[in-house]
Design goal:
single chain; 400 residues; alpha/beta; globular
């Protein structure tokens, strides 16, 4: 084991992460990125054929994400790996305490294993979840390549890594703590102590203090979060150019960011037609780079999907194909049956009477099996309105 990997393991044995409390009940709400049907639909435009899938939770930590994977994918075979034995022990306690396994019909296995060794796992996976982990590997490219080898054809992988521009002040504080720790580097409790003393001592108008209070202070009340942010022994932060170099090293296909609203240039320069015209002449990666340069504070991380081809893609612009499809509600909606609800991104949405009526049919469709054409024949709804619901990810379609 490399010295850096040992250091990371020691950090997470000292401060198991994330420090989410262990509850006596399953978690509330949802995270659609952990829900295979919703995530697959986001990536392809269609509901997957199978829910008896294999999932790899790569770097599961204390199991907060694993718990959602179990809750949202009740028939899946799930393997959860991490290098910290203390974090893995907490993850298992979390599942036992919350009772989330009571309605789980699949299987869950925990393994102490570094991500670079994922190639030793048997078989391939339909969904790989790797959030907040690859940027902490000594060689992130080795990690993403190992995961790519275990992704099944047509499989999808969700990744979260840090962005350098939105974390600039964090990088400065990390370096300052390292300087002041000197020969105590690797003593993570001392690092937390030093970091907290710095924040308490600096002037109120100091840029690092202001950023901490504006963005990170609430979560950093927990020492586990403070340590993960400011005294981590191994971290790689990306910009768009280095991110796509990293992605291309995996030989996987970039599907898109899972927080797509952030990556719309219109939100920044739409008031100026000349600037918009110039931006439209840029390629996709250049537009992404422009967005993070113009709005660095919003880009603290990158969350995105990759896939191993071939992966089907449906845009549903063919009227005949759309008419034959069978619509259902997106499984990640909160507040149905109501005209005011939260969408898959947990953002408020208000639907009109016609949309509500159509979605009522969709809610029944897993049992009645109506096509879009069948429902249109019983309502005043139109194909353009169906496409509007699709674009908002309020419904998903099946062609089976």
């Amino acid at each position: 084991m490399s010295e850096l990997r040992k250091a990371v393991q020691e950090l997470y044995n000292t401060y198991p992460f994330p420090p989410d409390p262990l509850l006596d009940e399953p978690p509330t709400g949802y995270n659609w990125r952990w829900h295979y049907q919703s995530a697959y639909n986001f990536c392809t435009g269609i509901k997957p054929d199978n829910d008896k899938i294999r999932i790899l939770d790569a770097g599961c930590g204390t199991g907060s994400g694993t718990e959602y994977l179990i809750l949202h994918n009740p028939y899946a075979e799930i393997i959860a790996i991490d290098i910290s034995e203390n974090a893995l022990a907490t993850a298992q306690k979390r599942l036992e305490k919350s009772g989330v396994l009571a309605n789980f019909h699949g299987s869950i296995t925990f393994k102490q294993l570094p991500i670079e060794s994922a190639v030793t796992l048997e078989g391939h996976f339909d969904l790989i979840n790797c959030v907040g982990v690859l940027h902490h590997l000594p060689d992130p490219k080795a990690g993403i390549k190992a995961l790519g080898e275990k992704l099944a054809e047509g499989g999808i992988m969700h990744i979260f890594v840090y962005g350098e521009l939105g974390r600039w002040e964090i990088q400065l504080m990390q370096k300052a703590i390292t300087l002041l720790q000197n020969d105590k580097i690797g003593d993570y409790k001392d690092g937390v102590k030093v970091g907290r003393e710095i924040f308490a001592t600096l002037p109120e108008n100091n840029r690092l203090v202001k950023r901490e209070k504006e963005r990170w202070q609430w979560e950093n009340q927990r020492d586990e979060c403070f340590a993960d942010m400011y005294v981590h022994p191994c971290e790689t932060d990306y910009n768009i150019d280095t991110l796509f170099d990293f992605i291309h090293s995996s030989s996987l296909e970039f599907i898109g960011f899972s927080n797509p609203d952030i990556w719309q240039i219109e939100r920044l320069i739409s008031k100026n037609p000349d600037l918009m015209s110039r931006a439209e002449n840029l390629n996709l990666i250049q537009r992404y780079r422009l967005i993070e340069l113009l709005d660095p504070e919003s880009i603290t991380h990158y969350e995105f999907f990759l896939a191993k081809p071939p992966l089907p893609k449906y845009d549903w612009q063919d009227d005949e194909l759309l008419g034959k499809a069978k619509p259902e509600l997106n499984p990640c909606l909160y507040g149905w049956e109501s005209k005011s609800l939260l969408d898959y991104q947990f953002k408020p949405v208000t639907i009109d009477d016609e949309e509500f009526t159509f979605m009522q049919y969709c809610a029944k469709n897993p049992t009645v099996n109506l096509t879009v054409t069948d429902i249109l024949g019983q309502t005043n709804f139109t194909l353009p309105q169906v496409r509007s619901l699709l674009s908002q990810q309020l419904i998903i379609l099946s062609n089976k």
